Amino acid sequence: MIANLEFENFAVFEHLDLSLSPRVNVVIGSNGTGKTLLLKAIYGLGLMADGQYPDRSDDGFVASASGKFLRIFSTEEDRVGTLSSKGIQSQTRLRLVSADGSATEVTFGARSQYMNFSADTVTPKSANTPVYIPTKEVLSLVRGIRHPKHDRATVEMIFDDGYLNLAELLVKPGFDEKTSDLLEDPRLSNVIRDLVALVGGRYRENNDGGFGFQPGQYEERAQATTDGGEAKSRAQIAKAYQDSTETRFVSTDVEGFPTGMTAEGYRKIGVLHRLLCNGSINPGNTGTLLWDEPESNLNPKLMKKLVQVLLELSRNGQQIILATHDYVLLKWLDLLMDEGKEDHIRFHAIYQDPDTQKMSVESADSYALISKTAISDTFAELFDEDMARALEVTNT
């Protein structure tokens, strides 16, 4: 879990000092303010903090770590100095402090090819791998990204490492096609069911390395034993009643179809479902979930349920950082937050300082306490225009 971030002279951020909520963080800003840059920087630092490069004494460590960090941003140059603020002579410094007190700090100059790691950079004792979900859905891209006949260098030129890493997580072993231990976990059982109910099915990996959509739903059924009798359910709630049912995914009579024939918004829900079912996201045990514009290509009707799912994950120990410029998503977060369930949402609004033209960040634990953003301004203008037209019609 990430507690604090400090950036100096990084891309559009001359200075940034961000204290993160252990629950839900929402980064707000117009296009071009650096929301995606911020999420990618957190992701890259989080991978290094997780010990993705454990042998730090190896001569190739700095070059390897620098190269992987660069590929997250898909820059056209092979030196980290390209990520420095333009026109600034001072060094770039990025520091991530985890909740356990460990810190990862890197520095580099505008002409640097590799990063320098601070002496107090500490690898935490336990794995805490972050998960990054980019704006564009990935399920339909997995086959192309991982195809053995595709040249890896070309693939890396097309897709940054955020996409490549997520593709690997989506095919990670451990997803049980018949039933899932998560369905017996009272923390996540409802979340898994809700995600499938939301889109009317689930996505399964095909033999060709791609994914297909299987219509269906989870149902409670009697759990048969080898002797023909009934077994006791593993579910904690069921055990209290000596229940003998199990939860299984039951497909409908409708034949499945390729992922590309389903709505992109559904595929984004499918990504979250698979990551939960294969353990890539396991609240309280895995790292921060970073999601760039979850509302992109998502039907507004689905947004309320998605927010409910995200809040439920955070209640079970999952730290979440979202980047958005969608008013509907923001309002659902604001309306569905329940302090009685210890919900906590910290909003971080990125804006351009009119005097210095530099990006600044304003944080608050209530959306109402954040100064007007371009998002709220735009919707206020839309409301005013709508009211003006309504009044005009009424007066004629």
UniProtKB/TrEMBL annotation:
SMART domains recorded: AAA (SM00382)
Gene3D superfamilies: P-loop containing nucleotide triphosphate hydrolases
Signal sequence extent: none
GO biological process: double-strand break repair
UniProt xrefs under InterPro entries: AAA+_ATPase, ATPase_AAA_core, Bact_Antivir_Def_Nuclease, P-loop_NTPase, Rad50/SbcC_AAA
Domain AAA+ ATPase residues, every copy: 21-343
Single GO term (MF): ATP binding
A Pfam family recorded for this sequence: AAA_23
PANTHER family noted in UniProt: ATP/GTP PHOSPHATASE, EXCINUCLEASE ATPASE SUBUNIT
Name of the protein described by the UniProt record: AAA family ATPase
Taxonomic source organism: Aurantiacibacter rhizosphaerae
